[in-house]
Amino acid sequence: MEIRDAHFPGRAPLDAYGEGGFRFAEMSHRGSLLCVPSGIYGWDVSAPENFSQNAFEKVFQEQEDIEVLLVGTGTELRLLPQDLKTLFREAGILADPMSTGAAVRTFNVLLSEDRAVAAALLAVD
What we know:
Largest sheet: 6 strands, mixed
Distance between the termini: 34 Å
Number of strands: 9
CATH class: Alpha Beta
Order of helices and strands: EEEEEEHEHEHE
Shape: globular
CATH topology: Hypothetical Protein Mth938, Chain: A
Strand order of the largest sheet: 1-6-5-9-7-8
Oligomer: single chain
Structural class: alpha+beta
Helix content: 10-25%
Radius of gyration: 13 Å
Strand content: 25-35%
């Protein structure tokens, strides 16, 4: 039996968030999400304190297709660590932290405009 990382192979707007998860593409997911050009993935980060280069590895793997990274930091805005901001800048990615709700709304707008956008979204209750 093969066990793979669960993901949705494509780009889709996010229909809802809250209660510890997200809804998109007629599916639901409990936990945090990472939305990159190759698809929507479950993300094993649950708090801003866990933000690290390793946590954003998939973003860096797809950096040539990402101009803007929206980082949903939960119910309140939390700033990104300076070393992480530097890594994003060096990769040519504008990383913009905001509350998860604001990040979901902004992601949907930029996605509808066919922009090179990605999102890293912490689940909220």
